[in-house]
């Protein structure tokens, strides 16, 4: 079952286009990747702050901690390499939102959204200022994002989103069918909303740049240093023992930002790993670019539950991802799951949206694991008598918001009572997902229900029941 109308001929175009696609991540396979950093091999190496995870959350935590207090000894540990996880695999959309979009924030925290939006704007400005301050060249640009209706019942969703943004005073623009087509030439577009606040970036180069900035401040990063556990050194000033496969740290404080990879038992009921699949095309020729327009280079997304996100890179490739959100029982994460029939589905959809690009080839196909919560926004908390804090569960919208999430984790682990740490979205956990096997069954039912809503425009009893108890599923 699918709510996406596949065009005739798209399947044959997809098979040809995928024939030579490499099964690896485009971003991290490009020249310029930094050399491998040495793993932690010392035993009981002493530090002030240990950070677990060298993705966006961990790197932002390291930079901000050192900017706050340059005398801190900060050590970052990662089980693989900088950029290997979700931070180097995503589409590179940089949204100012801290709440997975305005509608989700208004539904969850209407009384706090004014303050949250102020924090979001300040965070996005700080995000950009940091790239400028450290000379991080990650192809960041600010073309905006177009959310497009592909079916009749998505038209009203687009108009509702437009009205909500206008009520908040946001600079958005409602596009008719003709205006949407004038920007990007697809026969499927019915109308759209342009949000000029969204940027685009090369996520791997952003990861590398943040890591280099952290190291310039004196942070030590150890790659291939999988954390295997924590031991509480006791109350008061007792250090936390952070154990790895080859060494250990004695840290006064610990921040965990590992995304979908669970290193803390307490986060497992709240965060599930969902696979998202991505394709990258070869560079388009001037003739092909002329066929699709897209001169503004806006990021694009569908208005459905199961949605695609796609963008032009600065060397004129098209990244095309999303739609399927695959959960593997019982929360399995495995490299063998990265190549799947989801790529075939994406390719068929690509040529349905752009039939004029028949003959274009995909060069790369990959997947990444998204840390999803039931409310689509991150969760925060502490452990080990407040000496460890965590920020996980960005649900696919973390390229910009991880900077803010890292700041929240630092507030918590340092015991600072701030406006950020006092927010309900920080103090309250999302609804937990049920244990297996109910979890896996529920995910399958929910995916089928969302597909049915995309097809019919009607929300069934199952989805309405989830709405009432505050549980959702997204990527």
Describe the protein in words.
The structure is a single chain. The chain has 475 residues and is an alpha/beta fold. It folds into 3 domains: 10-26 and 145-196 and 272-372, D-Amino Acid Oxidase, subunit A, domain 2 (D-Amino Acid Oxidase, Chain A, domain 2, 2-Layer Sandwich); 45-134 and 202-269 and 375-427, FAD/NAD(P)-binding domain (3-Layer(bba) Sandwich); 438-469, no CATH class. The protein is 32% helix and 21% strand. Strands 1, 2, 8, 9, 10, 11, 17 and 18 form an 8-stranded mixed β-sheet that branches. Strands 5-6-4-13-14-15-12-16 form an 8-stranded mixed β-sheet, with helices on both faces. Strand 10 and strand 11 (248-256) form a beta hairpin. Helix 1 packs across helix 9 (342-353) and helix 2 (56-68) crosses helix 10 (401-414). The radius of gyration is 22 Å and the shape is globular. The two termini are 19 Å apart.
